[in-house]
Design goal:
By secondary structure, the chain is of the alpha+beta class. It has a single domain (2-135), classed as Aspartate Aminotransferase, domain 1 (Alpha-Beta Complex). It contains five helices and five strands, in the order αβαβαββαβα. Helix 1 (2-21) runs parallel beside helix 5 (124-135) and helix 3 (63-72) packs across helix 5 (124-135).
Length: 138
């Protein structure tokens, strides 16, 4: 079932990334499927069958806004180890990258408003509804 699960997670990730990219409380989404440089598109076509299900999102604001958002989630699960059948989210500045000096973190694109998502197999409408209600707290 791996090919079916992977395809579903990738399809869901595109829907979730698109929703977040267009949301007024989001200042950026780093998702390989949004790359528009010809070299990046060609490389993706040569090396990959899809765009994957993991990406970063940056909220307007910082840690406080992220924590308010994360506290409101009901379907997405907070975790530091991403990947699986359920949609997981983490705040790398205070989890996976907490020991990395701030300047290095920020140079690599991880600031206090950054979160990482690994989209799973849930219905995308349920995920979007959960994100929407959590974004109301930001």
């Amino acid at each position: 079932t791996l090919p079916v699960r992977t395809a579903r997670a990738c399809d869901n990730a595109l829907k979730i990334a698109t929703y977040l990219r267009d949301h007024p409380k989001v200042r950026g989404v780093t998702y390989v499927g949004f790359r528009d440089e010809p070299e990046a598109i060609a490389l993706l076509a040569r090396q990959c069958r899809g765009t994957g299900s993991t990406f970063s999102v940056r909220l307007k604001g910082g840690e406080a806004e992220c924590f308010r958002f994360l506290d409101r989630l009901r379907v997405l699960r907070l975790a530091v180890s991403l990947g699986g059948t359920e949609t997981l989210i983490c705040h790398p500045a205070t989890t996976t990258h907490y020991a990395v000096p701030r300047a290095e973190r920020e140079a690599s694109g991880i600031d206090d408003g950054t979160m990482r998502l690994s989209v799973g197999l849930e219905h995308p409408d349920d995920l979007i509804a959960d994100l929407e209600q959590a974004l109301e707290a930001v």
